[in-house]
Amino acid sequence: MPLRLYRGDLLLIAVLLLPLAIAAPRLGGPPGEAAALLGWVGRVGGILGLAMLLVTAALSIRLPGFDRWFGGLDRLWWLHRLLGFGAFILIMLHVLALGLARVPAGLEVAVLTLFPPLSQLALWSGWLAWLAMVIFLAPTFQFFGRLDYQRWKRLHLLSAAALLLALGHALPLAGETWPWWLLGALGMAAMVWRKLLSPSLARHPYRVESVAPLARGVVEIALRPEGRGLRYRPGQFVYLTPLDESLTAGRGEEHPYTIASAPDDPLLRLGIKDLGDASHALQTVSVGSRAMLEGPYGDFFAVDYAQRDALWLGGGIGITPFVSAARGMAAEDEGRHAQLFYLANGPDRAYYLDELTRCAEDVERLTVTAHFYREQGPLSEAFLRHHCPDYVDREIYLCGPPGMISHLRDLLAAQGVPALRIHCEVFDFL
C-alpha cells in the first residue's frame, strides 16, 4: 500500500502518543545502565502497546464517511490490522523487557516479577488480556486452516474481553489514568456501536427488485429502498445482509459488495460473482425478499485526487465500480476524460462490455477498450500505450483479482508511474 498521509493519520498519531506524552515526565529519558534501560523499554513498550490496542478497537467503529478520513475502509482496516499486530508485539516486548530487567537481581526475582502471587490482580489481569489476544489473533496466522469469516467475526468478541482486562491491568499501575479512561471509552464505544447498535440503527431496509444473470456465476441484483435510499458516489460499496429465508447460506450475514448503479438510479444495483457460499446463494435470491444495507463506504474515486484524465483498469467482478462511474457519466455535464480497459478472460466473461460500449458511444468523455487474456495474454505495456498513449500521465484506478492487480502494479511501476497515482479497490479486509 502506497505511503500517503491522510488527515485521519495525524489524529491517529496524536492519540497514540498521548499516553506516552503524559507519562514522559515520570518515565524520564532512557537510562545508561542495562537493567534500568530494559525496565524503561518495558514500560514504554507497555504504554504504546496498550494505546495501540485501544486505538485498534476504536478504529473498528465503521461509520460511513469516517473511513474517508483514512483513505477508505480498505485502508482503515489495514491500519486496524497493523495496529493490532503492533500492539501484540509491543505487549510481548513489555513483558520480556520487564522480566529481563530483574534478572541481575536473581532468576527467582525475575520469575516473581512476571508471575506474582494471585493476590496481585492487576498483573494477572494483564496475563489474561494477553491470553485473550492470543486466542483471537491465532486464526489470522491460519495455524488451524483457512480462516472462516463469520467464525472470525464471532471470535473477535474476545477482543472486548482483552480490552477490559488490559485496562484492569493498566489503571491500578498507571501514574496518570485519564488517558486510559479516554482511550478505553473510545474503544468500548466503538465495539458497542459495531456489535450492538449498528445492526438496528445503521442498516437500511431494501427489497430485491430483480436478479439479472450476466454470465455463468454472475448476477446483478437490483434493490429498491423501502424508505429513503442510500446516497452514494461511484466507486463506493455497501455491506449487504440478505434476509431471504430460502437462502442456503449467508442469510443474516453481512458481506461487502461494490455498487454498480449510477447515483441517480432509483434502484441500487450490485454485481455479485459466485466466490463463496454466501455469494453462491445470492445467485438465486428471491425477488421481493428483504435485505439490509449498510454504508456507503470507500474512497476509490476520491474527490481530492488531482483532476487528471483517468485510466481505469478493471477485470472480473472488479469491473463494478467502473460500471457505476460509466453509468453516472451520462448524467454529468462535464468532467475529466476516462479510458476504461476491460480485462477479461474472453468475450463470454466480459459481462458488462456491451453496456459499457453503449455508454462510450453516448458519452464523449468515455473510451472503452477490451482486452481478452485467452487471445492476447496478459496486458502488455505496448497494448496499453497503443490504445492510451498518455497513460503514464493519468490518474490510474485498478480493481480486479489479486493476480491482475499485482501484474498491473508491476507494469506501471516499471514505466515510472508514481505509486501515489495508482489507486486500488480491494476486499481482503472484510
From TrEMBL:
Top-level taxon in the UniProt lineage? Bacteria
The protein's required cofactor(s) are namely: FAD
Q: What CDD domains has UniProt attached to this entry? A: FNR_like_3
Q: Does the keyword Secreted apply?
A: no
Q: Which PROSITE patterns match?
A: FAD_FR
Per the record, what is one GO cellular component? membrane
* Every FAD-binding FR-type domain range: 201-303
Which SUPFAM superfamilies does this chain map to? Ferredoxin reductase-like, C-terminal NADP-linked domain, Riboflavin synthase domain-like
Q: Coiled-coil stretches, from where to where?
A: none
Listed GO molecular functions? 2 iron, 2 sulfur cluster binding; flavin adenine dinucleotide binding; metal ion binding; oxidoreductase activity
Query: Any idea which UniProt keywords this protein has?
Result: 2Fe-2S, FAD, Flavoprotein, Iron, Iron-sulfur, Membrane, Metal-binding, Oxidoreductase, Transmembrane, Transmembrane helix
The annotated topology with respect to the bilayer is: Multi-pass membrane protein
The family database entries (InterPro entries) matched by this protein are listed as:
FAD-bd_8, FAD-bd_FR_type, Fe3_Rdtase_TM_dom, FNR_nucleotide-bd, MRET, OxRdtase_FAD/NAD-bd, Riboflavin_synthase-like_b-brl
The record's subcellular locations are: Membrane
Q: Which residues cross the membrane?
A: 39-61, 82-101, 121-143, 155-174
List, alphabetically, the PANTHER family matched.
1,2-PHENYLACETYL-COA EPOXIDASE, SUBUNIT E, NADH OXIDOREDUCTASE HCR
The protein depicted here goes by the name: Predicted ferric reductase
